[in-house]
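Q: For a teaching session next week I want to show students how multiple molecules come together into a single three-dimensional assembly. I've collected the sequence lines for a complex. Could you give me the predicted structure tokens for the whole thing so I can convert them for display?
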Amino acid sequence: QQQVKQSPQSLIVQKGGIPIINCAYENTAFDYFPWYQQFPGKGPALLIAIRPDVSEKKEGRFTISFNKSAKQFSLHIMDSQPGDSATYFCAASTTGSQGNLIFGKGTKLSVKP
Amino acid sequence: DADVTQTPRNRITKTGKRIMLECSQTKGHDRMYWYRQDPGLGLRLIYYSFDVKDINKGEISDGYSVSRQAQAKFSLSLESAIPNQTALYFCATSDWAGGSADTQYFGPGTRLTVL
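A: Of course. Below is the structure for the complete assembly, covering every listed component.
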């Protein structure tokens, strides 16, 4: 119940394409769903996050879509650029004093010029 | 990343040696975490600390120990390193604001190789 399942493991798209990364969870107590972006040689950094009271959140070219009934959420990158090449992690947690992040296994995205 | 520093950045050691990885932060956060990252396995929580007097085991604490020397310092030790502890280790901090979600801030990582 604590797992967050992420797919695909790797993804290659052409510049301008729209990569989509999917995550699924089982624990209905999760109420915070962030995405972290990690460039080679760096630590992960928060990219965008959503709560289950909305179905979509957009920040620049990055959009999270959330389907509460299906217990799934996904990251879409519009007009992808080579600079978006990185590893992306979805995560989930329950807010509150003990809510640690449970991370997916990551998706390595490569955007070809 | 500069607010969370990790030393060393790279370390090669031999089986059976004791190793300490150090983490310091200038963000003034109470919460600190140690993760390991392995290809295809994502980020797995080793230990976490919500304040200087609070230490908690994470998902994969066996073979590791930690010390929270001060609010700003959190060290991870491998008492007797083994090859399957070869991984990328990350320290992270967060500032829980009473019911709101944590944003975790990660250090640059320590690449540990156990021969």
